[in-house]
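It is worth pausing here to work through a concrete case rather than discussing structure prediction in the abstract. The textbook approach is simple: state the sequence, then state the predicted structure, then interpret. We follow exactly that order.
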Amino acid sequence: MTLPVTIGDIYVAAQTIKGELLRTPTIPSASLSMQTGAKIFLKLESLHPTGSFKERGALNKLKSLTPDQRKAGVIAMSAGNHAQGVAYHARRLGIPATIVMPEGTPFTKIERTEGHGARVVLRGAGLSEARVAADEIAEAEGLTLVHPYDDPFIIAGQGTIGLELFQDFPDLDMVVVPIGGGGLISGIAIALKALKPSIEILGVEAAAYASMRHALGKEGTPKGGQTLAEGIAVKDPGKLTLAVCRELVSDVVAVEEVAIERAAAMLIETQRLVAEGAGATPLAAVLSDPDRFRGKRVALILSGGNIDARLLSSMLMRSLVRAGRLVRLRIEIDDAPGVLARVTRIIGEKGGNILEIYHQRLFQDVPLKLAEVDAVVETRNPDHVAEISAALIAAGFKTHLMSSSAATE
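Step two, the predicted structure:
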């Protein structure tokens, strides 16, 4: 079939945007390779000024406009990365930009987009409603729509990632790419399959928004809901991108929330790289099915790094809990002077660092002459937790580990 974009279009896009945005590095990861059994390479699209790959397609589209279109201005619908990519480069090029965002968009994303000089209009509960509003405003004001994924110039711009991957590591066996609407994977697939037909292109979606899998007949209707990978929480893939995925993408997999969270935390802990949920999905796919990737040379597209600071903080704390490095111990003690001091001394002598203490004596299920102490303790690992619990039990303190289903008595 005839694809909407050719390798020639992508080479033209590379020349069009050359020198106006960062050529991001691709780095080998020894630590992730050791943990997964594959030879892992990371394409760091999070290093762009706005923190995501979206700048490539946005810049290519903006530079394709006629003088009259530039003067009139552009409009886009987006809840985040596309908005910032369009706004950032529109201001550079002197093009007025309007961004339609869902009404529930976090204030920080609105402020960043406005900070790049765009006019922000809040409409609807999600991107579908924002798209309707964008079309209405575009028609009323004579603006050019910059679609986030279903546009040949957007696809070609994202495809420049594929050219760079091939230039840096032509012997790759597989590239794993996040899928929202499909513009990123479409561009990469067109570029790499033209340059190396044997390469495998694998797409990854959040399980709650497996819309491309659904469109390809591999999945039921997406259930939606909350996801850490909000950047790819798209209910309907593009028509152009669906055609490309059907023709060139080897497979599309869906990953669960726990895998996405684990992958994002691992990137920070092992690589010191901050990835938003969408950017962590390729690693989540590898962690979820390591046999599929073992022994292969695999590039993961770290598509963006725009994650809310509070969400990042919570994710890191949860990661410590999962690793057994932050636990809550419930300890039953006599409600008498000096007893709590004995407990804290035992924990300290065993190398535990107490972060918080909750002393409960007023609840009816606690005997009148006893008290329960919940101690939040920083530890080295699960073995260290067991050592601390054993010391408390040996001293006569009934102890339960509250941060897992296991109990120690």
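Step three, interpretation. The first strand starts at residue 26 and ends at 29. The first helix runs from residue 7 to 17.
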